[in-house]
Amino acid sequence: MNLILPFIAFIAGLLLAQSKYSERLKPLLATLLARVFIPIVIIYNMVFYQAGSLSLMLFSFVSAVLLYALFMQLFKDRLGALCFSYVNMAWLGFPFAIALFGPQISSAMVALYIGGSIFGNIWAVTAVSSAPQSKLVILKKVMQSPPFVALVLAGFARLMGAQNIQNTVWFDHIYSASKIGMTFAGMCVLGMWLRHTKVNVNDLKRSSGILGLKIICGLVLCSIAYVYLPIPHIQQYIGVMFLLFCLPPAANIVALETYYQGTGISARYIASGTIVSCVVIAIYGVLLHLFK
Hints:
Number of helices: 13
CATH architecture: Up-down Bundle
Order of helices and strands: HHHHHHHHHHHHH
Helix content: over 70%
Distance between the termini: 19 Å
Radius of gyration: 18 Å
Number of domains: 1
CATH class: Mainly Alpha
CATH topology: Na+/H+ antiporter like fold
Strand content: under 5%
Structural class: mainly alpha
Mean pLDDT: 87
């Protein structure tokens, strides 16, 4: 089921992209994903907290900052640096993580997603905007983002003792349904989006080189984390930590770029990066299966 559902959802997206309802379905599914399914998964995992979540959040956040700084140092390109460091955790990260490692990895993925999302909300607007953003504006955007709101709600729930509830059957059902909805919505939107995006060979070559650099960074950072950082249960989490560095740029970068700069350069980066990333993750999945 973990492998079949993302594939079915992606094919459904490709087919639905041809229908007259696609322009309505795409934002609807994306909204459900960002504002309903992912927040529910975050709240559940933060209420029924597992050791190591805070360490994984910090790893994800710091890794994104380091990737951004490295790309800026090498290429002096803010938009390219954002595409290099702010990855598609929502539409691709969750579905692929669950497909490769099973539902039990969702708590770790939530922690990694929160760290990357906080980075994205802080850096994204600053990177794509020609005008400098005040700290107050950035803070407001972070506090209004669904992951942050979900964290606050989870904090209130823990203060009220929700983690001590004995009968969690209904919570478990809602959580399971949200994970299925998250996987289906993410892969379906990806299919609809890629169906109408044109990518040439040069775009794929560029994305392959950039993803190769990111994978090298991932090997270095994950090795350092594995050897030196006191992350609980890191043996279980190191695979999904490395998955971060196989993911393509976040899809909402192009929306921000269009709004602030009136351009859509990142659309090609995102599309080609997604195609290359899907191939790399498929290879990663095969290697995981062979060496399990």
